[in-house]
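Lab channel / #folding
Pinned by the channel admin:
"Please post every new chain as: sequence first, then the structure tokens as a reply. Keep commentary short and put observations after the output so the thread stays searchable."

First post following the new format, from NK:
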Amino acid sequence: MNVSVFVTIWMADMDPGELRKNFLGAPLTLLKSNPAVGAVEFYTPEPGEVPSMDDIPRPTLIIQIEIDSAEQARALGESASFEKLFLHKALFGAPTDKINMEILKTVHFDLPGHDSPPPRTAPLSFVVRYYGPVKDAARFRNFYMESHPPILARFPGIRNVLCYLPVGGETGEISDARLVIGNEVVFDDLASLKAAFDTEVLQEAITDGQRFEPHGYNSHHAMHRESVYQR
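Reply from TO:
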């Protein structure tokens, strides 16, 4: 199973570069010492004029920790050392607005002209999340995965289309603001993202989104992704 622990941090008064540096110390050392951790990626806000989607504030930092299994992901997330270094709001030197931790399964989708989904190497990730409440989470996910990725895969210059599914269920009705599904489209750079969004494919994606099950809210953020560890 392709499983990741995602830690997403919002800090209005912290520079993303400074927060990134904090996690290159003891937190990254902790992850490297765990034999189940296969890779670590940091996402920071993409500089420049990014496409506006009338969204919630963009995260200061997203950390993706690829790990061998859901059981090992849960063990990591529940450990005292992980909580102290990744989830404790008082450690970061400035007020922390919010921290989310999610354990998600990654699904890679085919792209036109490829025999199989290509590896994710391009650094510009447009990160999308859909949150509850929602009446039927499974129905929302099933419709989304059948309908939306084939449209996104037709963006000019697209390098990857991925979805992220909560591990452990969240089926049936979700009455709170838990994650329902995540999505990520990957491009070479911000110019490529803008060029793709300046085509009819974006309007097709928006029209498709109007057919989704009613849900709480969603978010869309252009982030620069970098690999900081590979096993």
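NK: The mean pLDDT is 94.
TO: also worth noting, The first strand starts at residue 3 and ends at 10.
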